[in-house]
Amino acid sequence: MGGARQLTGILGTPVTDGVAELPEETLTRLAGQIAAARERQTAMLDDAVGQALRGVPLPVRGIVRKALLG
Amino acid sequence: MTAPSGGSRQIARIARLLGVQPTAVRGLDGLPEAELRALHDQISAALFADSRARFARVAGLSKSLPAPVAGKLAERFLPPVLAARVTELLEPAKARDLVDRVSLPYLGDISIALDPVRSRPVLHAIPAARIGEVAGELYRRGEYAVMAEFVGTIGVEALAAAIGAAGPRDLLALMSLVEWNDDLDLVFRNLPDAQVRQIEAELEPDELAELAELIGAAGSDRFGPDRLDTAG
C-alpha cells in the first residue's frame, strides 16, 4: 500500500479504489512522474519570470517586477 | 472511423498533463474511464495548487498593464502550459480583453493545456466568434479530443460557432468523441442549410450514416437515412 499512500500524499487527496489497487510499480512510477511534472512546472515558471524581468521594456519593468516578485 | 476508447483518451490526457508520452503512463489501461478522468482531475488540481500563488501574481499583472501590452508580454514570455494556468485565474472580463491580443496559434496551444472545468468562467466571457476561430485551429491540428472536452463547458452560442467552424470530417471525428448534451441537440437542429449541404456533398454515404447515428434525433431529419432517400 506504500505506492497508494505515496500517490495520495503527492496529490493531497485520496485516490480512487481502482487506482489504489494498481500494482505498486505503477503507483510508484506515477507518483514519480507527478513529482517530476511539478518540478518542471516550477522550473518553467522560474525561467519565464526571469526572462520577463530581463526582457520586458523598461517603461513597464517596475510594474512587472512588483507584480511578479511582490 | 474508429474512435479511441474513452479510457485511452483519458490516459492521453494524463500523459499530456505529465509531459510524457502515453506509453510512459502504462499500467492504467484497465481502469474505467470515470476513474481515469478523476485521476486526471486530481493530478491537474495538484499541479495547479502547487504554484497557484505564482500563477495568481502573473494573472494580476493583467490588471496593471494595458491589454495590448499584457497580451504581447504573455505570448513572448509565458509558455502556453503556464499561460493556461494563468488563464484559469483571470477575471473573465480581462480574459475577454486579452483574447484578441494574442495570436491564434498561441491560443490554440493554450487551449490544449486548459482545464475545461477551471476555465469555465473565462470561456463563457470569450466572444463566440473567437471560440469558433480557436476551434478551427484545434481541428486543423487534429485536436478533436481537446475540443470534445470543451463541448460540455462552453455556452450554446460558442458551441454553435465551434460546430460551425468544423468541416464535415471534423464533425465526424468530433462527434465520435463528445458526450451528447442538450446544447448539441439545439445546435444541430439549427445547423445552417449551407453547412448541411456541404456535409452531404463531402461525406461518403456510409460516413453520412455514421454522422447521422452519432447525432441521433437532432440530425435524423437533416442527414439521416430518410434524408438521404429524399436527397436521392
List the helices and strands and how they pair.
The complex is a heterodimer of chains A (70) and B (232).
Chain A: H1 2-11, H2 17-20, H3 24-55, H4 58-69
Chain B: H1 6-18, H2 33-50, H3 52-64, H4 67-77, H5 80-87, H6 92-98, H7 104-113, H8 120-125, H9 128-140, H10 144-151, H11 156-164, H12 168-175, H13 182-189, H14 193-202, H15 205-215, H16 217-223, H17 225-231
Helix pairs in contact in B: 1-2, 3-5, 5-7, 7-9, 9-11, 10-12, 11-13, 13-16, 15-16, 16-17
Highlighted features:
heterodimer; A: 70 residues; mainly alpha; 4 helices; B: 232 residues; 72% helix; 0% strand; disordered C terminus
In short:
Chain A is mostly helical and 70 residues long.
Structure description:
The complex is a heterodimer of chains A (70) and B (232). With 70 residues, chain A is mainly alpha-helical. Chain A has helices spanning 2-11, 17-20, 24-55, 58-69. Chain A is rod-shaped. The model of chain A has no long low-confidence stretch (mean pLDDT 91). With 232 residues, chain B is an all-alpha fold. Chain B has helices at residues 6-18, 33-50, 52-64, 67-77, 80-87, 92-98, 104-113, 120-125, 128-140, 144-151, 156-164, 168-175, 182-189, 193-202, 205-215, 217-223, 225-231. The longest helix of chain B has 18 residues, at 33-50. The radius of gyration of chain B is 19 Å and the shape is globular. The model of chain B is unreliable at 228-232 (pLDDT under 50). Classes of the chains: A mainly alpha (70), B mainly alpha (232). Chain A binds chain B through residues 10-13, 15-16, 18-19, 22-23, 25-26, 29-30, 33-34, 36-38, 40-42, 44-45, 48-49, 51-52, 55-56, 60, 63-64, 67-68, 70, and chain B through 17-20, 24-28, 31-32, 35, 38-39, 42-43, 45-47, 49-51, 54, 57-58, 60-61, 64-65, 69, 73, 76-79, 81-82.
